[in-house]
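REQUEST FORM: STRUCTURE PREDICTION
Request ID: SP-0412
Submitted by: Lab K.M.
Chain count: 1
Length (residues): 257
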Amino acid sequence: MTQQIVMSETADGILRVTINRPSKRNPLSRAVLDELRRLFEVAAEDYSLSCAILQGAGDKTFASGGDLKELADVKGEVAARDMAEHAKLALAAVRAFPVPVVAALNGDALGGGAELSMACDMRIAAPHARIGFIQGRLAISSAWGGGVDLMRLLGPSVALQLLTRSEVLDAPTARQIGLVNAVGDDGLPFEEAVADFLRPMQRQSPHVMRAFKALAMPLRIEGRAVLDLIETEHFSTTWAHPDHDAAVAGILNTKVG
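STATUS: Completed
RESULT:
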C-alpha cells in the first residue's frame, strides 16, 4: 500500500494538513510541495473552515528542506531558479489561504522547513522543537519566500541576525523574539497544546475569520513580488557558486571535484 506523502482531514471547522514522511525528516520534495499547493487551493473554497493547521508527522521534524535526491539534480542558475519558483507557488498557496494557518512545529523546522513555517500566519512549537534559517551553512540564501516573510515579521535587523549567523533557536528563544506565537508545556502532549491554541479560533464564525485574514493579507503580499524576485535571483546565483558545492561536500564528508 502506497503511503500518502501529505495527509489532510477536515473536522470541526479545521483543515489539518500533515507532511507524512517522518522516516526521511519530512523532506519537501516536488511531489510534497505540489500536494500542499493542491490541498490549500482546493480547501480555500470551503467556507465552513475557521482555520488550518500544518504539521509534520512524528515528533522529530516539522519539515526539512528539499528532497536531497532531487536537489542533487539541480545544476546551475536556471535549474535553481526553476526549483525556487516551483516551491514558491506552494508556499504562496499556504500564505494566501483565506483563513489563518497555524504551523504546528512538532519538531525541527530548518532551512526550507523554516521557510514553510513562515508562510503560515502563526506558529506554535513543541518544547523540544527548534527553528533555524541555516541556508548560509550551505553557502546559499533563502529561496522559497521565507527570507521575505522573516524580514516582514521581525524587521531587517533581527532577520539579518538569524540569516547571517545561521542561528538555530530553541522554542522558548523563538517565542521570546516573536518568531513563534506559543510553546507547548513539557508535561502536556503537543496535540493537546495545539488544540488549546486553536480552540478560541474555532469559536469564531468562519466568515469572521476570513475577514480577519483579509486584514492581514495586504501586509503580507503587497510589494512582495519585487522582493521575491530579488530573493530568487540571489538564491540561484549562490546555488550555482562553487562555495555551495564545497559546503555540500563538506557536510557529506566528500571531496569536491
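NOTES: The chain is about 50% helix and 15% strand.
Reviewed by: T.R.
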